[in-house]
Each structure stands twice: as structure tokens, then as C-alpha cells.
Automatic annotation (TrEMBL):
<dbReference type="InterPro" id="IPR000905">
    <property type="entry name" value="Gcp-like_dom"/>
</dbReference>
<dbReference type="Pfam" id="PF00814">
    <property type="entry name" value="TsaD"/>
</dbReference>
<dbReference type="InterPro" id="IPR022496">
    <property type="entry name" value="T6A_TsaB"/>
</dbReference>
<protein>
    <submittedName>
        <fullName>tRNA (Adenosine(37)-N6)-threonylcarbamoyltransferase complex dimerization subunit type 1 TsaB</fullName>
    </submittedName>
</protein>
<dbReference type="InterPro" id="IPR043129">
    <property type="entry name" value="ATPase_NBD"/>
</dbReference>
<feature type="domain" description="Gcp-like">
    <location>
        <begin position="38"/>
        <end position="165"/>
    </location>
</feature>
Amino acid sequence: MKGTLGAAKPIVAALDTSTAAMAMAIVRGDEVLGEVQSMAERNHSVEVVSKLKALMADCGVTADTLDGIAVGRGPGSYTGMRIGVTVAKTLAWAWNKPIVGVSSLEALAYGSVSAEADGSEHWYVPLMDARRGQVYTAAWAAGGEINTTWVRFAPDAIRLMADWVDELADRASAYSEFHEDEGSLTIVVCGDLEKHEDEAARLQQLCEASGVRVLLSPSLMEGRSSALLGAARLARGEREDVHSFVPNYTQLTEAEVKLREKQAAERDSR
């Protein structure tokens, strides 16, 4: 029987190559059938198709029984995003399957959600290094008064880490003013923290005075997060146009910036 999104538990394959970790997974509803995580960033283009097909075989899933494809659309590595999205679009077109893009930052944040609910509100803040003191980042909230609903409150963007810390600290302080219980808010900073440890520690210090706990949780991309988020989107009837769908580049590549600067200089010299 061929896959259909009308099924009670649709089968969705997901892949994300926006970071150094090539992550992929296959889910049936909310059940993870299998997943792969590889750190061979330079081999993403060589291995992604073979690893996905091997994963499908291991899970007993074929192109006919697959209901849809989810792919991390970035932000992140320029080349990595292009590889993942191109492969996903090609397979979706060849297999005649619906495709949906998932924010790579959202998947990174979703992978840090704890199954244990302590009653407090949690903010999930994923980080990907963007060089020169910058990060790709966003923010989601769950738990507490919003009743565990996964809610975005800051868009995917490239930000100066120092400014982002100040903004989060101000938000946390304002939040604590309206909540008398100390510890009613926990901020989980996840993802690529290695080059931003000092600023992350500064966030902890700034929030301590407000009674807000900040947890630093270095983490890698997990395929299951992209798959579960993508499956939920597909179940709601959301999908991309397979031909016009492109990654979320967030900013121009360095080469494009230099080209535009050169073109502007040439125009000014005329």
C-alpha cells in the first residue's frame, strides 16, 4: 500500500545538513523508527543519499510507503543547506511526495526539550556560530502558563551574541516582575556554545539577580527533531512548492557581500 498523509501515523523521512552534523531520521507518527547522525561535514554531499537509503532499508520503509519528506532549511552552513534542500527536493519530485521545510534552529531547540515537566516556563535558545561574534539564533517558549505549547517568540536571524544576551536578560527581567515565584522561568541555551561561552556565562550572571535559571546545554542537531516537527507540519496540510522552495540563507555569503561592495565601488568611481 502506498503512503498517505491521511494515515493515522504517517511515515516521514527527514534530513538536515545545515551544520557539521549530518542528521536524518524516519518517524511513524511520533515514533522514531531510526536515525543517523554523522560528523563528516566535508562528505555531506557524498554520503547523504546513500545514508538515507540505507536508513530507509533498515527501517523497512520504501519510496512507496513513505508519506512525506522534511528537510532542515537553515540557517546554517551555506553549502550544507544547499546540499540538504537539493537532495530533499530531488527525492520529493522523483518519488512524488510532499515536502516541508523545517527551521534548523527550531529543530536544534526542539532537541533540547525535556520530557520532565517541572511546572516552570522554559525558553529554548539555540545557537549556531556565525563568526565575528555573531550567531544564528531564535527563541521558543514552552510550559508554565502557556501550557506546554511550543511557541516561537523570536524569529530566525543572525545577531551579535552580546546584544542578544542583553535582549534576553531584559526579557527575563520583565518576565520575573510579573511572576512572584522564584524559579518560574528557565532559559535553556543549546547548540554551538564553544565560541560563545563567555557571553552565555554573562547571561547566567545577568539573570541570576532576577531569579531566572539559565542552563547551558551544548548539543548537536538530531534528525528526530526535524522529522517530528516536519511530520506535524505535513499533518496540518502544510507543504512547500518543490520547484520554488529554497533554503533560509539569512544573510548574503561573504563572497556575495564582497561582490556587491566591488560593484558599488565601481559605480561610485564612474
